[in-house]
Amino acid sequence: MFNRITEMGSEAFMTDNNNHVINTIGPVAEQLHKNAVVVDGHIDTLLEIVNGNVTGLTNKNDNIHVDLPRMKQGGVNVQLFAAFIEPVYKPERSLKRTLQLISCFHKEIEANQETISLALSYQDIHDIVRTGKIAAVLSIEGGEAIAGDLEVLHCLYRLGVRAIGLTWNERNEIADGIGENSAGGGLTSFGCEVVKEMNDLGMVIDVSHITEQGFWDVIEHSEKPIIASHSNASAQCEHLRNLNDEQITALAHHGGVMGMNFALPFIDAENPTVSRLLDHIDHIVSLVGPDHVGLGSDYDGIPSAPEGLEDISKMPVITQALLDREYSQEDIRKILGGNFLRVFSKIL
After folding, report:
1. Can you say whether residue 60 is alpha, beta or left, with left for phi > 0 and alpha for psi between -120 and 50 degrees?
2. What's the pLDDT score for residue 2?
């Protein structure tokens, strides 16, 4: 792995539901966070830009969770940008909408070249982070974008896509999404071809949003590690989008990683706090060790996050919380980004 010191403010803090400060970011956590490579496995900010809610990433904008000034403040070094296809565009206009989102992504990279760069390989990530810039990895949330054609998958790869969430909540040509879980469907024959082709191309397979049967089918057919970019542990919060212990164990045995989602309903139905989010991390670590959990905030894809994690600038709160739970600095670096980097090194 590699280290890169980035600028970061020290104003982030954890609060309880009464807005009382319960844990400031201490000097040990601040330095550890600066020296770590922090990876966020999933945000939906491109959609906010394409829909005209904000003009871009360049300037701070409190109407969204993520912009470049706050990414730098939060010490984020590697960011996966999801091109999320809204249901209204499915199925006929899925590819067109995907191309609009990809175009937006490239325009933002070009407009902010001194701050952020496109990463197409693990070596790119390494080199970009070493220069002090943010490495941007382009992903797609929803296999509808492939339009049932492997040649389209190749075209998307050439446009810079390096990760794909095989489904969102609905059924598509690849598999059933979590909204169809009761139907018991998994990967289709075409979906099996997609998994193989993504392995061959060097693309990251993301199983967040897929049915449980689809998950097991991907485990069976993928020769490379997989990720669940923004999913939590169902043992801590029983939600369809969270993974059960069997799934977490299989993902770990396959060498993969899952990114903790900051969405309140995925953390706790009644008390979705930073502490409860850490309970998910504790559970996964107790089950499979510290090598298979990371961060997948889902910022700008969720209405709100727990108090203390209101936007991406607050990422150091996670570091302080892990220190408070007596995680070693080595394990904290893994959770902040090292585990995702390990998977990327084997695929990209």
Report:
1. beta
2. 52
DSSP 118-168: E--SHHHHHHHHHTTPEEEEEEEE-GGGGTT-HHHHHHHHHTTEEEEES-S
Q: Which stretches of the chain drop beneath a pLDDT of 50?
A: 1, 3-22
Q: How far apart are CA 340 and CA 60, in angstroms?
A: 27
Give the C-alpha separation, 100 to 98, whole Å.
5
Give the pLDDT of residue 142.
Answer: 97
The Cα diameter of the chain in Å comes to 54
69: Cα within 13 Å, side-chain hemisphere: 7
Residue 23 confidence (pLDDT) = 54
Dist. CA 252–CA 246, nearest whole Å: 10
Q: What is the CATH number of domain 13-347?
A: 3.20.20.140
3-state secondary structure of 329: helix
DSSP assignment string, 268-291: -SS---HHHHHHHHHHHHHHH-TT
* Per-residue pLDDT tens over the stretch 54-92: 999 999 999 999 999 999 999 999 999 999 999 999 999
Where residue 95 falls (left for φ over 0; alpha for ψ -120 to 50; beta otherwise) is alpha
d(CA 131, CA 126): 9
Q: With H, G, I as helix, E, B as strand and everything else as coil, classify residue 29.
A: helix
